[in-house]
């Protein structure tokens, strides 16, 4: 049995060398920013294992990032249901209140956390579990590319992470090249029930994408006070006052809850809004746009430019 | 639960109830009612003038007449005005209901939250929020109203033993309230998403109330207030005690039912629109008693006006002080009401 094994080894080394040569010729043009795996996005020093076998993803964002680079998490939060394959993974409770015992039972050798959700938990969890925890921050489209590289490198899928990140950056650059000089004013709003509306600021994930796309967010100075990062209460009065060109509406309730779009349209004070009269109130998927930042930003980049600039992007495939 | 001071004052009201009041006393009490009316008018105008978006006083006046720019028109006429007017009606209804229930049960602690009305309305409203979130407000409101009426009715039936004694009515109300509140809590804790919305309803608030809510509330408010004011004299008599009232020719049980039903009508409709705004029904009547005594012919209209003033002012604070965050006004009424009530209790004792 020994000779075939040796032969196999020789063949695989040769193919690896070939792959490396091929990669080398392609990478000439753009220099790739180096990925530092000793310091995570919260600025903590981490010593992740070189080739981890069981990686637990602490937020839906991390789950999506891992699948995007071709890695499979050993555990997920209960709310992570994308892609389809994620649903069959064991879960450890919610992302906001993960069960330490359930995570320990998954026997991870690396945990990837979400810097926006778990900043208060990572150090405690790391010392209690004795497993390195690496936090990634995804608060903008640029962060998604960065996170794809980091998660790829962490999970031994460096190539795939790089390819995905490149594709995303190319796509964004292509859209930005076509943007008109002046963008519309926009409100990203979620109806939180009983007459309350919360809106995204520039500092939110969707807010940063809108900014990249040249739109003017009408929500500027309000302090953040909602459980989604970068979101703030925004009163009916202010919405009427700012009168945005476009309203992006997302609904956070389970199926059966009224949609934000319907609530906006049935609120009498909003009947006179420009966006309502011109039919420019668009319902979007709250998971993709707000709750689960990540690789599906490419879906946002497919849809949002058409909503903001119908004359420029509507014809695009 | 015997309140000697209240008893004494009620005994004093006997003369008013039976014989016409002295002209001098009448003047002072009428003056307080007129003063309250004036304060309410000022409060309403100022409240409409204040909000997260600054609009100058002249523009506010123009906007009320529909002559300002489109934005100011909408903010003043479609957002602020209905909310302030709904608040005034809710405050007035709760204060009147509280005053009537205190008289009927002869219990200074009585208010809509204690006799099962609020708990009934709360149970139905939270059930709607949790199980039927797509029901329009035009359907939820009458259902919550019916729930409030049923809650009060249940307490009344449980207190009935060939007649309703005031003490039994208050105790049965407390029992009904704790049962219904337990069911409401059970629904809230088992529904992760709706919990926050349901909680905000239970605390009570006026966020986003529109002309639609105004139109829903107006008929109940009109009927309830007219009946309440028309029965003020019977309430004076019944507040003296069953024996005295009977000896004065009052058909006690029938009157008590009519008065309780009117209070339930006012309170149920108010909480079905604004949620369980706390403490107002309890403290406003006591505050007014201090000012003008226990004659319900004056106590009821004055309570209505002061209740309206308190809720309008509290709601103005609720939507401006912590801007852009809005507090539910129920938080403020309870926060402001607590210390005031303690002060009142200590001054009377």
What is the fold's blueprint, element by element?
The complex is a heterodimer of chains A (317) and B (349).
Chain A: H1 2-26, E1 55-57, H2 60-68, H3 100-105, E2 110-114, H4 122-129, E3 133-136, H5 141-154, H6 158-178, E4 185-193, E5 196-200, H7 205-212, E6 216-217, E7 231-233, H8 236-242, E8 246-250, H9 260-266, H10 274-277, E9 281-284, H11 286-291, H12 297-308, H13 310-313
Parallel strand pairs in A: 1-2, 2-3, 4-6, 4-8, 8-9
Antiparallel strand pairs in A: 4-5, 5-7
Chain B: H1 4-18, H2 23-49, H3 57-64, H4 70-105, H5 117-131, H6 137-159, H7 166-189, H8 194-203, H9 211-230, H10 232-238, H11 242-247, H12 252-274, H13 280-292, H14 296-320, H15 329-348
Task: Tell me about this structure.
The complex is a heterodimer of chains A (317) and B (349). Chain A is of the alpha/beta class. Chain A is built from 13 helices and nine strands. In chain A, strand 2 (110-114), helix 4 and strand 3 (133-136) form a beta-alpha-beta unit. Chain B is mainly α and 349 residues long. Chain B contains 15 helices and no strands. Chain B starts with a helix and ends with a helix. Chain A binds chain B through residues 192-196, 222-223, 225, 232-238, 240-241, 243, 253-254, 256-258, 266-269, 272, and chain B through 51-53, 70-71, 74-75, 78-80, 129, 133-134, 136, 193-194, 196-197, 200-201, 205, 207-212, 319, 323-326.
Helix content of chain A: 40-55%
Number of helices of chain B: 15
The quaternary organization reads as heterodimer
The major sheet of chain B is characterized as: none
Total DSSP E strands of chain B:
0
Helix content percent band of chain B = over 70%
| End-to-end Cα distance of chain B | 13 Å
What structural class results from the helix and strand content of chain A? alpha/beta
Q: Would you tell me the overall average pLDDT of chain A?
A: 86
The shape of chain B is globular
Largest interface: A-B, 28 and 32 residues
Strand fraction of chain A: 5-15%
Tell me the CATH superfamily of the largest domain in chain A. Answer: Nitrogenase molybdenum iron protein domain
Number of domains of chain A: 2
Compute the gyration radius of chain A: what is it?
22 Å
Mean pLDDT figure of chain B: 86
**Can you count the beta strands of chain A?**
9
Label the CATH architecture of the largest domain in chain A: 3-Layer(aba) Sandwich
Show unreliable segments of chain A.
16-30
The CATH topology of the largest domain in chain A corresponds to Rossmann fold
